[in-house]
Here is the input.
Amino acid sequence: MNWNAAVLTVSDRSFRGERPDEGGPLISAMLKNAGYEVLRTAVVPDEQEEIARMLREWADAGDVRLILTTGGTGFSPRDVTPEATLSVCDRPTPGIPEAMRCASMAVTPRAMLSRAAAGIRSGTLIVNLPGSPKAAKENLESVLPTLDHGLQMLSGEQADCAKLKD
Here is the structure.
């Protein structure tokens, strides 16, 4: 099944044009290679209400089933993407960030410092990825094969939970 997606980069420096957005285009390319159609991309500053507004707007529009964010998941006082995400979600999906942290721990013990969150709003799955392009790629690779199944269940399609996809 092909799904529509959106990618939101959260970065003060990229928003101000001081640094190119490398994570957003990388994530978009990974999604496209996996058969997703990326309908929207944007860069916003590390401002909780701005992040939340964009997530609400995109999820409530009803044309994307997956929103991936990159950035704002660390310990810095300006890292507020998880708070913004959870503030707009109707239901949390803690297994997704748990799986990403688990996979990342094989690469670096610093993975335990990720505060990434995930949840569901209006039939749309929202998942936070790290801001580092390398870490975002590694995290997305660890969950991307399973997201299709989750989106099938979320959309009400028949999904065989006992059968793993090859």
Remarks:
- The mean pLDDT is 95.
